[in-house]
Amino acid sequence: MDKRGPLFADEPEDTKTEILKATFDALAEHGYANLTIDRISQHFSKSEGLVFYHYDGKDDVLLDLLDYLLNRVVQVGMPVADDGDPEIRLRTLLDQVIPGPDEQAIRDYETVLTELRMQAAQDEAFRACFNQSQDVFRETIREILRDGIESGDFRAVDPELVTDFLVTLVSGLTFERVTTGASRSIRSELDSYIEYRLLADAEDADGGDA
């Protein structure tokens, strides 16, 4: 994936990662409802028996895939420099989580995550994985906002409310893109939000009224 680096090596070094890669490809192609171990094995270069050797069934391998994907986001896609201009840090983070119209690899990733997120409505194990990842995303935004407020780069906004807004925006945009195929061009509006809602103007920086 262009912004996060590839999710998997072309030739994974271990069998379990190769199974997860095959599961990702099969899930992106068939969706959760039509996913079977047989379809996973069609994307797997080794015997189907190895899938059953490592996993008890479909949900077992899917939970491992979800954990792998979310950890990959946290380790590679989520981190931004913890020093420097808060505005640049925030924009960089948003660039990483809002794909451009031609980034098919990220779209496949979002499709797979959306399929897995639907299972979180009924399965506590899936829900716990998503909650852990979402907590990291939220804390990353909050930290940037707090640093920007402290440095005077951002207005004295409520970090919790702004974080809720940005997380909801990204989540809603992803869900609509995956479920409707629509690609909304909201980045200019988001840029305006950052400029006029978050960035402190000269008067703010001098301690005047906003």
Automatic annotation (TrEMBL):
One of its GO terms (molecular function) is transcription cis-regulatory region binding. PROSITE patterns: HTH_TETR_2. Pfam families: TetR_C_6, TetR_N. The keyword Transcription applies. The keyword Repressor applies. InterPro entries: BetI_C (IPR039538), Homeodomain-like_sf (IPR009057), HTH-type_TetR-like_transc_reg (IPR050109), HTH_TetR (IPR001647), Tet_transcr_reg_TetR-rel_C_sf (IPR036271). Residues 13-73 form the HTH tetR-type domain. Residues 36-55 bind DNA. Keywords: DNA-binding, Repressor, Transcription, Transcription regulation. PANTHER family: HTH-TYPE TRANSCRIPTIONAL REGULATOR BETI (PTHR30055:SF234), HTH-TYPE TRANSCRIPTIONAL REGULATOR RUTR (PTHR30055). This is Transcription regulator. It comes from Haloferax lucentense (strain DSM 14919 / JCM 9276 / NCIMB 13854 / Aa 2.2) (Haloferax alicantei). The lineage of its organism: Archaea, Methanobacteriati, Methanobacteriota, Stenosarchaea group, Halobacteria.
